[in-house]
Amino acid sequence: MWLKHRELFLQEMIRLEGRCNRLAAQSCSECNCPSPEYRCRDCLGSEIYCSPCILLAHVHHPLHRLEKWNGQYFERISLKTLGLRIQLGHTTGQICLNPRRAFNDDFVVVDTHGIHKVSLDFCNCATAQSHIQQLLQISWFPSTTSDPKTAATFRVLEHYHLLSFESKVSAFEFYNALSRMSDNTGLLPIKDRYDSFTRMIREWRHLKMLKRSGRGHDPSGVDGTVEGECTVLCLACPHPGKNLPAGWKDAPRHTVRWLYGLFLAIDANFRLKRKAVSSDSVDPSLSCGWGYFVEDKAYKDFLHSGADSVQEKSTCSSHNAVNMADTKSNRGLATTGLGTVDCARHNMKLPNAVGDLQKGERYINMDYLFFSALRHTVLDTLNVSYDIACQWHKKLWHRMSAFPISMHLSHAVKTISFFVPKFHLPAHIEQCQTSFSFNFKNRVGRTDGEAPECGWANINPVASSTKEMGPGARRDTLDDYFGDSNWKKVVGLGHAMLHKIKNAFPERENHREAFEDLDDGLRGEYGPTLKQWREQVEAWEYDPTQPNPFERKAETVTMASVRLELAREDEINLQTGTCLALHEDCTPSILISTGLELEEQQRRMKANRAGLGVHATDNQEGKMVQQSNTLRRRIDTWMKMQELYMPSLAALRVSESSVSGSVTAAPEAIKLWLPSQISRNAPCNSRLQAIEWKLRYAQGHDALRSLRSNLRAQTAILKYKDRNLRGQGANTRARNTWKAVEARIEAAASTYEYAHKALVVLSPRVNQTGWHSSLQPLDRADVRSMTDLLWGETEGTRKLLWIWNMRGAAANEIDKDNASEDMRIEWCKARARAMCWAEEVELLKEEMRRILQFLEWDAQRWDERGLENTLEDAGEDEREGRMAYANHQASLRRMLAESFKTSWTDTLALVDTFDHNSLVAQQDMDMDT
């Protein structure tokens, strides 16, 4: 559509380069003076004026850009060149009787239209205010308090301030853009005021933080600011005295008070580094722990006192956050990243909960941030999420003893639960996956604990500029970014909470109905045990030290345990004289076990030979020949023993060699003729078949465990690589590690396929059934991480692949007892899903109530700040400004509350009506029964 008019657009743009209307341009548009020469690029229209008229028109617009017609084209010219002088300290246009020119009559103003040189006069009358006050009163921000020669308009500072939040543009890029707006050719000298601009924007950020937090209305002034006071709080989180009902402490702990719990999420970010430039003494922070960062001196003093502390190693999966905390490279860096404590449900930074990491994610850093954040709350129910919570929480209270008394937490009288975020959980061992899961614990709703991960995507682009800053400038800048992030979430709570409850309400009903259907269906076959299951899961929910009903109690079958069992059987046979061993050093179980080992070595040899490639070195070829010769000798020795127990194999091997001719097979290609490889019609001792079946059964489970373990390792490697590694060298090393894990995954899958194939052949011969539920056919599509979702699946609705449902087989797995255990676990999971969605709806309703109450509390606080009797010490103009700002803030919060309430009304009414009807129906059913 636009292409049809492209030519028109182009011609109009070119037309504006001239005088447009030559007939009208013959006289001044204002006074009709002949031969006007000047026009303004920033005023509306393209009229041309004479010099006196255009100067008069720009007394109130001294930073507009003018152009002069030189007979051929328009060229740049400044208002300063035409003689415009800007007089401060008086009403615009009024003449000062005692003006004082700016230093060297060379004042520079940075504005949204560019960088301007202006002629500026300060008022030097007897009643004149200071130069910086005169600049501030016309909304110009001076670059220094001592004889300023540069200023930035409030307009450009506000413009860059918001632009930096949304686009993460650096001050350097923004200033260069302004410079090019003034001259994009390099022919005109532009005063370099970049350092002044960065200083002004830093001061501007700081002052806006103080203004919005009400410090300008406090009688104690800026110096009376306390730690964490200049933050934007999460409205939906519980704040005693602000948005909790009276008597909340007396509410029943397990039925109501859980709704007043605080959800915390701990995490670290290694993108937000800082190079080893400047120092705290040269570049201190403008605030002293007033925002989201902890007070720096106390923090570093404490870290220095615990510099010799040794990080405990992980007993769970090999968590790099734990095991590599003391080894992470920090060469050339003063800070390797940030540690934070966030609101886990709404992704907002907490006051005094952010701190620099000097060398990895050490406990001493994260402990300090955790205890620092909790100084601002008296809540007694805490739900703490951390991706290494399983390790971190173990000695937390012991480590707390080294902290100042003011940071101690009375954990004995509080209800504190620890969780691992849902996305990170699959990388943990199986015990952690049930003990620290949000999915199985009650009174947490559908919290996932991954809130910090969502926030890093927004802040990470800032790293390119903050890594070059000094320590104070970086902390002040990041404090400002965190404050803006929190404010954006506050104003977006109306839509966010509505979206959540619209999703949670139908999910609650769907999962409730699904659980009721399952519960009703099980009452027939499992009726007597349902009560026992319920008692078990309720006991575990009340006391996590009780047996976990989500874990299987069956012992895990391994190759080692089966070999031990067979060896004990051989020992009994020897003692009773029933041993059928035909060789003193090789019993039937040893024969078959050794055969499986040789089969595994053959597969390994094939993989090694395939990995050599076509350009193998002599050294590699030599090692391969040695391994091949060793394997051949072992096979030859084993085959001689085998023929003692399976004499019919001699004829089979002769027949096979006659078909293949005189070509000698490679050792990895030699057929071993294990019982599962012999035809059903061929003679084979049933004892040997039973032994192989047991060993193959264990081999299958061993392979599955190896498969799961290596898939978890692969997930952890990819996650660590994505979060922490940059550069070709580091990524290449990570790729090599990943390839080694991939090779182990392939080997485990291949071993499982061999074992499963043998079990399919042997099971009818030895009359074994029921094993198929635990050892299913392995499709290559099944070999993937637990966290990989299919299209359309989410964390709350997805189904695990069967390889992850199987956590080890038991010796009696073919019996019904284990099927009962599987059913118990599925029943517990269905119950947990139904409860979590029901709790989520209740939690969302409570959070919505808290949001509205917090906004009203905040509005009343601003009302109090704006009362005239609290501003008696201020001048008349200052008092009016304070009252106007306070009234505006109070009105803004009430408008937000009204907007949220209006958008939620219909949905909350529907939920309340449905709940009321369900309650009445339940009461009727109870009366009938």
In terms of topology, how is this protein built?
Elements: H1 6-15, E1 38-40, H2 51-57, E2 66-69, E3 74-77, E4 85-87, E5 99-101, E6 107-111, E7 114-123, H3 131-136, E8 140-142, E9 150-153, H4 154-167, H5 171-182, H6 194-212, E10 262-269, E11 274-275, H7 296-305, H8 320-323, E12 333-335, E13 337-343, E14 349-357, H9 363-374, E15 381-386, H10 389-392, H11 396-400, E16 415-419, H12 430-435, H13 451-459, H14 463-466, H15 471-491, H16 493-542, H17 559-576, H18 588-612, H19 618-645, H20 649-660, H21 686-724, H22 728-766, H23 802-805, H24 816-865, H25 876-928
Parallel strand pairs: 4-7, 6-9, 10-15, 15-16
Antiparallel strand pairs: 1-2, 2-3, 5-7, 6-7, 8-9, 10-13, 11-12, 13-14
Verbal overview:
There is one protein chain. With 929 residues, the protein is α/β, with parallel strands linked by helices. Helices cover 50% and strands 9% of the residues. It contains 25 helices and 16 strands. Strands 4, 5, 6, 7, 8 and 9 form a 6-stranded mixed sheet that branches. A hairpin with a 4-residue loop joins β2 and β3. The longest helix is centred in the last third of the chain and has 53 residues, at 876-928. The protein is elongated and about 125 Å long. The two termini are 72 Å apart.
